[in-house]
Amino acid sequence: MTPQPNPQVGAAVKAADRAHVFHSWSAQELIDPLAVAGAEGSYFWDYDGNRYLDFSSGLVFTNIGYQHPKVVAAIQEQAATMTTFAPAFAVEARSEAARLIAERTPGDLDKIFFTNGGADAVEHALRMARLHTGRPKVLSAYRSYHGGTQQAVNVTGDPRRWASDTGTAGVVRFWAPFLYRSRFYAETEAQECERALEHLESTIAFEGPSTIAAIILETVPGTAGIMLPPEGYLSGVRALCDKYGIVFVLDEVMAGFGRTGTWFAADLYGVTPDLMTFAKGVNSGYVPLGGVAISGAIAETFAKRPYPGGLTYSGHPLACAAAVATLNVMAEEGIVEHAAKLGAEVIEPGLRELAERHPSVGEVRGTGMFWALDLVRDRATREPLVPYNAAGEANAPMAAFAAAAKKQGLWPFVNMNRTHVVPPLNITEAEAKEGLAALDAALSVADEHV
Ligand code: PMP
């Protein structure tokens, strides 16, 4: 039964939360979490009866929306038959989820190691790469987010790593391409691509190729701003990895499972990594699940020698049953194709039209259901609407933008000077248009800071 609005219950939920829940990435006394009563499809609502269209898909994970009846039923059925079982056994939900995922992943990424989410998938991918190569270092991009556990936060570029960056984890960062804020003084995508590859190859040369286990990249960086790599970049990185015997890890935790209008973002570029991490969309986040898809060559390393790593809940049957149901629903309902079509025909033209009218929009970029508006003070200089990693007063323009969107019944994804348009992949055309209209009103508030 779906919980209905009830302010008294809402106040009690909020009071217990404030008393006892310690929230992620937050100064505990400076936050005011919304008490959520229920959710369905592309919407959720609070206990006071306010309803929000979720343009953030939670944290970019509810790819098939909230409470899809077939996935809820599959979880219930799994709970009734086998709620849990230890990872060393073969269990139907787990083997079927692995089979379906391997069928979708590119190339020979045919073995699946299951984790509880994205960060631990990154931890294990990097461990596999180090053991496979016998080398210590990992190269990662400045504009990236790979998770909140120790190794994952160390390879992250996002400022959230600063407070816990040990600086000793064998991580070297480099600049990946991003023409709008080019570090390479490039004026075209082709120049950006060529110079970014030159920069990466010289980083490899100066670090010493024989010391580098892996290069990790988000196929399309998500949290850092949805920057589609230029044509030729990822195949260029693939070639460098082959040349120097480096394991190529693509992190598809956010971009994978239909977000880009293809099953994986790697499909957009025809590139196959050696290891691919996933989570979120694999089961729409209904039960925690992530994993690493492993190439034949790396799987072979651990064919006769044990892989030294594991998790109590690796491939938890409830999470895997949710994945099987999600992947089947996505195929049956043509959700990936829908994301590509609605993205190209409604979201993209809608965002470009908003950019024409709102001077605060510096750039619109993305694909499928994976879009960012880069908000600026000045289109000519591209100065961001708020400074890098702005907090408190410095972030007031983005806070005002988010408040205005919520007032319009839209829950936006906001990070630094950007708002990301990342709705459920099966959002309807009417819902998408409703969201764009709300964004229009909220951008007028951002425009006041131009
Ligand atoms: N990698 C990427 C690309 C992500 O976007 C995220 C989460 N936003 C993670 C890893 C970490 O995933 P989790 O929060 O499930 O640990």
UniProtKB/TrEMBL annotation:
It comes from Streptomyces kunmingensis. Pfam families: Aminotran_3. This is Aspartate aminotransferase family protein. The keyword Phosphoprotein does not apply. It comes from the Bacteria. The keyword Oxidoreductase does not apply. InterPro entries: Aminotrans_3 (IPR005814), Aminotrans_3_PPA_site (IPR049704), PyrdxlP-dep_Trfase (IPR015424), PyrdxlP-dep_Trfase_major (IPR015421), PyrdxlP-dep_Trfase_small (IPR015422). One of its GO terms (molecular function) is transaminase activity. Keywords: Aminotransferase, Pyridoxal phosphate, Transferase. The lineage of its organism: Bacteria, Bacillati, Actinomycetota, Actinomycetes, Kitasatosporales. Belongs to the class-III pyridoxal-phosphate-dependent aminotransferase family. CDD domains: OAT_like.
